Amino acid sequence: MTFTVNRIDHVVVNCRDSDATVAFYVRVLGMRREVFGAGRIALVFGDQKLNVRPTGSANWVTGAVDAPGSLDLCFIADVEPEAVGEHLRACGVEITEGPVPKTGALGPMTSHYCRDPDGNLIEIASYLPHH
């Protein structure tokens, strides 16, 4: 039997301080905190979620290297690129690059880059045109 995958369901974010991580993603990216399983925490947005895993957690299988700050994540916002930059600045988040043209899974997009509390690279992109 052969198959192909059709989407990502969730990504696990290893972090040093789950409270700081959750607060950032809720405040800056509008995700919703949700508790599941045996007290685990997820950040829900659209039809996906990020599971927040404190580094060193027992009984929670992770990658070969349990290293907070090793992810590059790209999120899509359904607003114009200018609104992304304005929102990040209003939240006091340092924009490390952007707005810059990039190519995403659906074609040309405009991206802003910042970092979460663990140093993960966060790309917030818009497929909407500049105005």
From TrEMBL:
Gene3D superfamilies from the UniProt entry: 2,3-Dihydroxybiphenyl 1,2-Dioxygenase, domain 1 (3.10.180.10)
Residues annotated as domain VOC: 7-127
Name of this chain's protein: VOC family protein
Organismal lineage: Bacteria, Bacillati, Actinomycetota, Actinomycetes, Mycobacteriales
